[in-house]
Each structure stands twice: as C-alpha cells, then as structure tokens.
Amino acid sequence: MSTGSGNFLLVPIPEYPGLDCVPNKNVKIVVLGASNVGKTALIVRFLTKRFIGDYEANTGALYSRKINLEGEQVSLQVQDTPCVSLQDDAEGLYCQEQINRSIYWADGYVLVFSITDMHSYRTIQPLYEHVRRIHPSGNIPIILVGNKSDLLRARQVPTDEGQALAAELGGHYFEASARENHEGVQAAFLHLCQEVSRALGGVNGEKRRGGLHLVRPKSPNMQELKRRFRQVLSSRGKSTTAV
Ligand SMILES: Nc1nc2c(ncn2[C@@H]2O[C@H](COP(=O)(O)OP(=O)(O)OP(=O)(O)O)[C@@H](O)[C@H]2O)c(=O)[nH]1
C-alpha cells in the first residue's frame, strides 16, 4: 500500500534541481473542473492534510513534493488550474490557453465536479473530450472526483451517475470531501499517482508521448507561495479535522 511522505509543506519546484537528490520518476498531475468545485481545496487537503476555507482567485499554482509509491521515491508535481466552463451550446468548453498547456504537460488528470452542482458534473464529459483532443492516442490516467460529499442534503448528482461516468471515461470514481476528510482525498490522489507511475514505467518514464512535452507551466512566484504557505500555517487553529 502506498503512503504519502511525512513532509506536508508546500514546496516550490526548484528551477534547476540538484541531480543527486531528484527521484528518478516524475509524476505530473493536473486538477481540472468547473468553478467553485473545490479544486484548490482538494490539492491543499492532499498536500497539507488541512482544509482552508476560502481562497483568493486561483492563480494556477504548481506544487511539488516527494512521495513514496509502492516503495519507490517519486517526485510529484500537482498543477492547480483556473476553472473551465461550458460554452452556451454546451458542446464545447471555455478553456484558457494556460489550461491547455497544463493538460499537454500532465501525465494524469483529476477531473473534479461538486456533488451539489449538476452543472459542474455536466462539464466533465466535454472536459474529458478536450483532454482527449490534446492527447488523441494512448491511455490517459484519470480519476473522477465528486467533491463536497459532506453536503449530502444539497446533493444534485447521485453516486451512481458519478460511477457510470467514470466507467465511461475509463477511470475510477471517488466521492470526497475536502472539508471533512483527508483520507478520502489522499486515497483518490494516490490512486492516480500509482496509475501514472505504472504508465510511466521505468526511469523517469520517458515515455509514452515520444518526447513531445512542452515546457512545464510557470511556477507561482515566491510571493504567492509564501502567501499560501502562511495561509496553511495560520489555518492550523481553524482546521476542522485532527491531524
Ligand atoms: N462544504 C464543502 N465546501 C468545500 C469543499 N471543498 C471546497 N469547498 C468550498 O468551496 C469553495 C470553492 O473552493 P475552491 O477550492 O476555491 O474551488 P475551485 O474549484 O478551486 O474554484 P475556482 O477558483 O473557481 O476554480 C470554497 O468556499 C471552499 O471552502 C468541500 O469538500 N465541502
């Protein structure tokens, strides 16, 4: 069974990492979904075990940490993204260029909707097709996350609809609550990390797309990282779950 590392600090990605301390394998995942579904909350919950109530407008932060996957040290990068939205005809997506670059860059995809928001659920299929257009061939490791499972009374998306959609897209479905539960969030992210790690195969998995990778998305600047780090520290007193 995989476990996360003990270090739950948000760590900026070194631009020029020292080669001697870099794990062989680099797992890159991107978190995608409609507005207000909890993308940032899920990432912060996974990386810090904590829930931070309110966030400033998303800046597309990139986080990194080392994790242990099935006994192997792996470098994990998680890209947060601004929201996507359906076009008026509900066929296509409004998707910023920054998001397209992140989709191209990533190896694995967390597609998030809120169980309290049917509209966010309807965004998932076009979003997946969009990812498919960018990666037309090969296996795409994805998970589907129905977030805000603590808000059961406001549920608009039944569990079986989430499961059915995930099966159609070829991924696993997780219902999670970034607010209430670290374990569920961790299980979902680690599942995807394992899928990606296996898909990458050997050393650094260079890899299935024949070296077509774009330069990774721009890291958040240091001010932004410091601000988010302070947010995490100051939330200690407010956290809703024991760590
Ligand atoms: N009840 C509940 N609220 C949540 C949960 N996750 C996030 N929220 C709240 O939902 C709101 C949106 O969370 P964010 O993490 O900013 O969502 P986002 O998808 O990154 O939003 P955008 O920046 O619009 O793309 C915030 O007020 C969070 O506190 C959850 O699991 N349960």
TrEMBL record:
It comes from the Eukaryota. Signal peptide: none annotated. This is small monomeric GTPase. Belongs to the small GTPase superfamily. Ras family. It holds the Pfam family Ras. It comes from Tachysurus vachellii. The keyword Membrane does not apply. One of its GO terms (molecular function) is G protein activity. InterPro entries: P-loop_NTPase, Ras-related_GTPase, Small_GTP-bd, Small_GTPase.
